[in-house]
Each structure stands twice: as structure tokens, then as C-alpha cells.
Write a structure and sequence with these properties.
By secondary structure, this protein is α/β, with parallel strands linked by helices. The protein is built from 12 helices and 15 strands. Strands 1-4-2-3-5 form a 5-stranded mixed sheet.
Length: 507
């Protein structure tokens, strides 16, 4: 228990208690120091994951789990963070978009992986303590940590008796506990009737961390807070070259991580023997900085399903921004192959998020991102004013789930006209919609690679010429936009327009 100078427990100072309403939480301690609170989270998480590891080690040695091991397993639960805000504690400063409770109540969430989220937890907890002048509660929840989120094992390596013990004694992921009701604005309470402190529970985060590793073939601790998404492999090749050049010189970046967790460091060559022979579905590449504000680049492939899948899981990392750099079909006769499209609105014909975010919900352009992208185009092309408009146009993007939409142009003409769409793609609206849904700043800069309705179809020779001319330049614009956003400070990125009137306090 934290003490103050006169030896009085903090529980005796703040009303009758910062712990009222947390009766289901065990080993409660209160903190007015964010560093101490995070240290306690680490201690609980480490202790409870060791319980799981030790029990599994005994099982692997073909020992039957005794009562002591079973009791220990039952206590292997997630750390809990909570705060109780009374009306007198509310902070009504309208300039804050996160880091404060907007209504009085008892807030709580389970947390996980302090090795990845330590800085994030420290920042969010520190803001709550500073702005509300009340302590944070840290304790042990009753929500079990599923064994697969701690230990990687192959069921085929276990004998039938061991498998039976795993299924009956260890906790496995329970999909009935996993949903997005909080970010989807469906649930206003957690299962213990707490107001949600965060968009995601510990188990939901762990689920996504596992999925990210599966889809990208890189460990979640390598992901950076600025994310570039593309739908073409050639952009990846250009990014790897850029990353190598940064690592070879004295730059802000410390290492480049490739799929398979292959790490290229300054002064070291490419470890060829470690490079994956078979790429994952959506390979990721991480150009890392010491502060975590480097760049993660992911080839998400083609289509809204992939776009939704990857951003569903990236969201738990609470990135500062994700940007879509891809190709599109131009719809205007005045457009030229290679022109850039800065999306300021979207027509959602992707059909993959309708149950999570109704189509009537508008997707606002994020001003800070739009300005950064436009400025980046001007800087890289060395153009501005009227001249810039000859190479870049702002407008509405239509995102479709039909790769052969060209075969339905007679049906689509009316929608093109009514929406004033200037380009068609298969990912951008999905990426933007999930950015809005998960409160992650988003933006889209596409490059016109064909104009089917005007007879300019993407043919092999024309496509190769286009790629050679535009891929490197397009990537350079995306990298420049991230540089500009980072230079202005990440706080200005997290706009209030992405948050509602009763949001969870954590960003």
C-alpha cells in the first residue's frame, strides 16, 4: 500500500476510498505515481504467467498436475487497473481528447503484456492521476490468462493424457468473452459493471497480438507507432531499400526487422540464412526507433477483407496513425496515370464492416493527416499552388469488394455520378472506417494505375513502366508525411472528432 509522509494510507485520504466498487478485485493497491503502478502491473503479470509456465513444464515432463498446481493455475489471472471518479473529481477542460473520464463512475479494465505496453500504460495512468487528482487502483482480476497466450506449443507433441489435462485444467481462449462491443459503442459497461477504462480487455489484446504474429510473421514487440499499408509488393521492395540505407548511416532508426523476426542492425549485413522462404499472408517490415515512433510497413494484399483483418488487430497496439498507400482506378477523363488522389471522403461498397460500423456513419477527414499528406506531395514533387493540382487531386474514393467491378460499370455509373467519386479501389474506405471505429487517425494517398472506364486498362507493359516511375516516389511521399506528423508532435494527431461523449479514458 502506498504511504504518504505521515504514514497514512492513501485509502484513508481520498473520500472513503478509492477502492469502493472494486470488491471483485483481489490484492488491491492504490497509487498516485504512474511508475509505481506500472511496476505493480508488471509484477502481477510476471507472477501469474510464471504460474502457467510452471504448470505446463510439469505437464511436459509427464507429471500429473497435483492440487497445488491446479490451485496456482486458477490464480493465473490478468492484472486489473481501475479508477473511481466522483463528480467533484471531474476535469472539464475541453482541450483534452483522452486521458480523462468524462463522467463520474467506477472505471476498470484488465491489462496485459507490460513488456510491450509499459510506456503506454505509464502515460495513460499518469494523465488520469494528474487530471483527476485521485489514485489509480491496481489489483488482480478474476479473468484468467489463456495458456496459448503465454506458451506456444504444438498439440501433436502431447500424448492423449497430456492433451486431456490441457483441455481440462488450463484455460483456453474463450471467444464468448472476446468482442468489440466497447469500440463499437454497443456496451457501456464491462462484465463486472465497470465503466470501460480502455477500448480493449487484456484477453482481446492478447488475441490480436497472436493474430498479428501469425499474419505478418513478426513479433508484436517490433511494431512501431506509425503504420504504412500498401497493396503491392513493389512498395515493400522500395521500403526495404530505404530501411537499409537508413540503418547504414547515423540516422534516427536503429534497426530493420523483416518477416521471420530477421533483424538488420547498423554495421551488420543481411542474415541471408534467416530470411523466410515462404512469406506470410500480410508480411510486415519494421524500421525501428528507440522511442517506438518508427515505421511499420505492411503489404496487406488486395481487398477489404484483408484490410479489415489487419486493422482489427493493429488497433490494440494504439498506433498514432495509419496511412494507406496504394493504387486505384481513375474515373475522370482529365486524370493521367501516375496522378495522386488524396481521399477526403469515402463511398463504402466494401461490405465487410457494416455490422460493426453502419454505412450511415460519416468518416471525417483528419485535418492534421490531410495537411501532412498534401505537404508531403508538394515537398517531394517540388510543386505547390496551382501546379500541384495538376498532379494531385482531392476527392471521394469508392471502395468495392468486387475485384472485377469493371464488368459492372453500367450499374456503377449512377453511383459514380451521385457520389462524385474520382477513383475506385478495394481497401481505403475499410482502412479509414476501422481507423474511425478504433479511434486511430487515418489517411489515404492513392496513385492512379489505370482508367478502365476511359479505355486505359492495366496491361502488363504499361503497368511495369508505371511501377518503375511511381512506386519509389509514392513511398517517399508517405515517409515524408510521417516525418511531418512526427515533427509536429503526436498529441495533435489524436483528434477529438474520433472520440464520443462517453469514451473510455485510455487513448
Amino acid at each position: 500500500m502506498k504511504k504518504i509522509k505521515n504514514g497514512t494510507s492513501l485509502l484513508g485520504i481520498f473520500s472513503k476510498t478509492p477502492t469502493a466498487g472494486f470488491e471483485t478485485i483481489q490484492e488491491i493497491q492504490s497509487f498516485t505515481d504512474a511508475n509505481a503502478a506500472v511496476d505493480r502491473i508488471e509484477e502481477i503479470y510476471r507472477h501469474n504467467t510464471v504460474r502457467i509456465q510452471e504448470a505446463f513444464d510439469r505437464l511436459s515432463q509427464e507429471e500429473k498436475l497435483d492440487q497445488q498446481s491446479l490451485t496456482s493455475l486458477a490464480q493465473a489471472t490478468y492484472p486489473f487497473v481501475g479508477i473511481r471518479i466522483e463528480t467533484k473529481d471531474l476535469n472539464n477542460d475541453p482541450s483534452f481528447s483522452y486521458g480523462l473520464a468524462l463522467e463520474a463512475g467506477t472505471y476498470g479494465t484488465t491489462v496485459t503484456r507490460p513488456d510491450i505496453f509499459k510506456d503506454y500504460y505509464r502515460e495513460q495512468i499518469g494523465l488520469l492521476i494528474e487530471r483527476h487528482k485521485v489514485p489509480i487502483i491496481v489489483g488482480v482480476s478474476d479473468e484468467p490468462i489463456p495458456m496459448p497466450f503465454v506458451i506456444e506449443h504444438t498439440p501433436s507433441e502431447l500424448n492423449p493424457e497430456q492433451l486431456w489435462q490441457v483441455q481440462n485444467y488450463f484455460v483456453l481462449p474463450n471467444l464468448s468473452r472476446l468482442d468489440d462491443d466497447i469500440p463499437n459503442c454497443i456496451a457501456s459497461r464491462t462484465h463486472h459493471n465497470f465503466r470501460p477504462l480502455s477500448l480493449f480487455s487484456g484477453e482481446r489484446i492478447d488475441f490480436s497480438l497472436q493474430r498479428l504474429h501469425h499474419y505478418t510473421a513478426t513479433a508484436p514487440e517490433h511494431f512501431q507507432s506509425f503504420i504504412l499499408l500498401t497493396n503491392y509488393q513493389r512498395y515493400v521492395e522500395a521500403f526495404i531499400e530505404f530501411g537499409k540505407s537508413q540503418i547504414s548511416q547515423d540516422s534516427e532508426y536503429t534497426e530493420l526487422v523483416l518477416p521471420g523476426n530477421v533483424i538488420i542492425q547498423r554495421g551488420h549485413g543481411m542474415p541471408i540464412e534467416q530470411v523466410l522462404k515462404h512469406m506470410p499472408q500480410m508480411p510486415a517490415y519494421h524500421l525501428k526507433r528507440k522511442d517506438g515512433q518508427g515505421i511499420t510497413f505492411i503489404n496487406i494484399g488486395v481487398g477489404p477483407s484483408n484490410a479489415k483483418t489487419i486493422t482489427d488487430h493493429l488497433a490494440v497496439l494504439r498506433p498514432h496513425c495509419w496511412l494507406m498507400l496504394g493504387h486505384c482506378a481513375g474515373l475522370r477523363s482529365t486524370q493521367v496515370l501516375g496522378d495522386y488522389i488524396l481521399a477526403h471522403a469515402y463511398v463504402r461498397e466494401d461490405n465487410v464492416l457494416d455490422q460493426d460500423l453502419p454505412r450511415w456513419v460519416p468518416l471525417p477527414a483528419i485535418a492534421e493527416v490531410q495537411v501532412a499528406l498534401q505537404t508531403a506531395v508538394a515537398n517531394v514533387l517540388h510543386n505547390s499552388g496551382p501546379m500541384l493540382k495538376t498532379q494531385m487531386r482531392t476527392g471521394t474514393i469508392m471502395t468495392t469488394d468486387n475485384r472485377n467491378w469493371e464488368l459492372r460499370t453500367k450499374e456503377l455509373y449512377e453511383r459514380f455520378r451521385q457520389s462524385r467519386a474520382i477513383a475506385v479501389d478495394m481497401e481505403s474506405a475499410t482502412v479509414a472506417a476501422n481507423g474511425f471505429r478504433f479511434r486511430v487517425p487515418y489517411g489515404t494517398l492513392l496513385c492512379i494505375s489505370d482508367k478502365p472506364i476511359h479505355g486505359e486498362i492495366k496491361l502488363r507493359g504499361m503497368a511495369n513502366n508505371f511501377y518503375q516511375q511511381r512506386v519509389k516516389q509514392h513511398l517517399e511521399i508517405g515517409l515524408e508525411a510521417i516525418h511531418l506528423l512526427r515533427e509536429k508532435g503526436v498529441d495533435q494527431l489524436h483528434s477529438r472528432k474520433l472520440r464520443g461523449f462517453d469514451e473510455p479514458p485510455f487513448r
